[in-house]
């Protein structure tokens, strides 16, 4: 998918957060052998030390009780809890990226050290950070980034917040993309490119982002449904494309309300799966965690280790109600197709839309 994005004139990105250094190197070599286009390698900034496990013991027990319920509900599927690979060492990942010298190093959940930023700049690597608020955007500017991804609350997957504690992010740091772009552009120098992320699926959403001050747009969920995407299982892709297929079956526009409700499933921001706030299609798993654990989930990496074996088991069993179904709020407007076609459709439509203004 990265290769096709680059060959279509976009900037692809390797989501390397969970990749071991050897796998990052292998992916880099494969991509550079098949495209001359620039691409990014994206990493997660590791969390600062949080509560000790003893302080989290009660929450741990509550989370484990939910996992027991889910495991019981999967007993009839002839599947077992999955083996989860160890979390990669961040410092080793960074050293690998600096050695490979990709066109761009991007990151989420914070800011790299001064030394990493200095070495990347010395190697000619462009730096892109993720901001979900005005203060975060200013912090990234002060750190010396070359561009900022402005992530609106519409975006699917993990929130890139880093100045707001995870347990406060859902309530206090979920500004929509257009409002966030408008306010960030007022305080960030005009020569710093802003990349709009969150709900970018068609000409209207992309053009709105440009009007509000972005220099580029970033597509996530729109490309998850592409022909080349192997990032999500079939049942996940089918749910994302359910609204499109419903519209295709009813070209006259007359659709029953119960069909609309079934296809256009709501999304929500949750900490249930990893401990980090993330947006996905609302599931029974999210409901169980909300009812039994509330907002007191475990810190990132701790929560992740407890939930992922059962969540991955649900993937094998094709039980979507217990899977993590990351999706942006605008997933209902997604359409299938090749990566090139999806990108060109958005870009060409934006150009036509602008010419008509």
C-alpha end-to-end distance: 33 Å
- Fraction of residues in β-strands: 5-15%
Helix content: 40-55%
Low-confidence stretches: 349-357
The main sheet orders its strands as 1-2-3-4-5-7-8
What best-fitting shape do the alpha-carbon axes yield?
A: globular
What is the N-to-C order of secondary-structure elements (H for helix, E for strand)?
A: HEHEHHEHEHEEHHEHEHHHEEHHH
SS summary, helix count: 15
Helix-and-strand structural type: alpha/beta
**Main β-sheet: number of strands, strand sense, barrel status?**
7 strands, parallel
Cα gyration radius (Å): 20 Å
Mean pLDDT: 92
Number of strands: 10
What does this structure look like?
It contains 15 helices and 10 strands. It is α/β, with parallel strands linked by helices. Helix 2 (21-32) runs parallel beside helix 4 (90-100), helix 3 packs antiparallel against helix 13 and helix 3 (57-73) packs parallel to helix 14 (302-317). It starts with a helix and ends with a helix.
Short structural description:
45% of the residues lie in helices and 12% in strands.
